[in-house]
Amino acid sequence: MKHVTISLLRNILGVSVLAASVALSSCETIYDDLAPCRTEYRMKFLYNRNMKFADAFAGEVESVGLWLFDTAGNMVWSGSESGEALRAEDYAMTLDVAPGTYDAIAWCGLAGGDAYYLASDKVSRKEDLILGIRRRQTDGAATVDNDLHRLYHGFEHIVLAEPEGGGTVTAEMSLTKNTNAVRIMLQHLDGSPVRSEDFDFTIEESNAVMNYDNAILGNDPVLYRNWIKTETSAWFDEEDNRMYDDSDPTGGGEPGDGTLVEVNGLMAERTVGRLMADRNPQLVVTRLTDGKRIIRIPLIRYMLMVKGEYNKSMSDQDYLDRQDDYTMTFFIDSENRWYTHAGIYINSWYVVPRQETEI
After folding, report:
1. Contact partners, residue 341, CB within 8 Å, separation at least 6
2. pLDDT digits (tens, 9 = 90+) for 337-356
3. Residue 253 confidence (pLDDT) above 70
4. Is the backbone peptide bond immediately before 36 cis, with ω within 30 degrees of 0?
5. Domain that holds residue 82
6. Can you tell me the distance from the alpha carbon of 119 to that of 207, in angstroms, rounded to the nearest whole number?
7. Cα–Cα distance measured from residue 8 to residue 10, given in angstroms and rounded to the nearest whole number
8. How confident is the model at residue 11 (pLDDT cuts 50, 70, 90)?
9. Which CATH number fits the domain that encloses residue 249?
10. What are phi and psi for residue 114, nearest 5 degrees?
11. Gap between the Cα atoms of 102 and 289, Å rounded
């Protein structure tokens, strides 16, 4: 009985060793065939270059276009995706490439409409990924008068290594938002209505063409026109809000008498391309009754004036790339002229312009 038991154990041990040898041989064979032990490469996109320093990719980015180039600058792979797949918290794009070193370039948001175009319909080199904002000729000027949907750019130098035994390798790409919302509000000093047919709003720039590395190419002027104007109103009484004398919009007058007070304004909204610290776009407000420019200010200079203490560690360009929403309020007098002594409110900051500003 003891002899039978020892023989049985030896047989079991021999079968186990044989099975292990077969399994090892099979794994090696599978690994040689790159399935299922092959390496999967993925690209994860992050949009954390914003004022909250938090990843907002899933909530903001609606489409992704990605191109990979080898060390000689030739495109070796491209892919795109849009819709609900991008909403997943663990979303990453699968890259069907061999191990190696690549330049990865992304333009995200191109599937949102026809506001943009690529320099070439067929991409083979990085230079084919130059992107432009569509313009049309209006009275001899290249103009943009439609809304620009959200556009993002990414450029990363990545090394995709092959780990022993396969697995998943994930590279990361940080995106820069290239579109900015600019809202211009006009308010009469006396609170009376401001009519949309009395004013035109434009931003004079030269940023309609972006290189594959997101640098601005050229200096061809482009005129961003207000794509929507809205007459606004608000009512207050002393019970809700202590109102002050209309002659001093900064709040230095005497309390009102408790009667209903109406405040009116005209808001123009505009989306523009990437704003650069080394350029000099101009914000212009024109009085249409006589064609006179009542406001003309250097937009970047005033935007950077409200960068603030908390953001002083940022470079000017980093601040402009992170801050994508601006509201500027101007007060005008009874003759529809800019009342410069009332200053400008920019994102709730009060700024007093230089009184020699040309208008």
Report:
1. 352, 355
2. 999 999 999 998 988 886 44
3. no
4. yes
5. 39-113+149-177
6. 15
7. 5
8. very low
9. 2.60.40.2090
10. -115, 30
11. 57
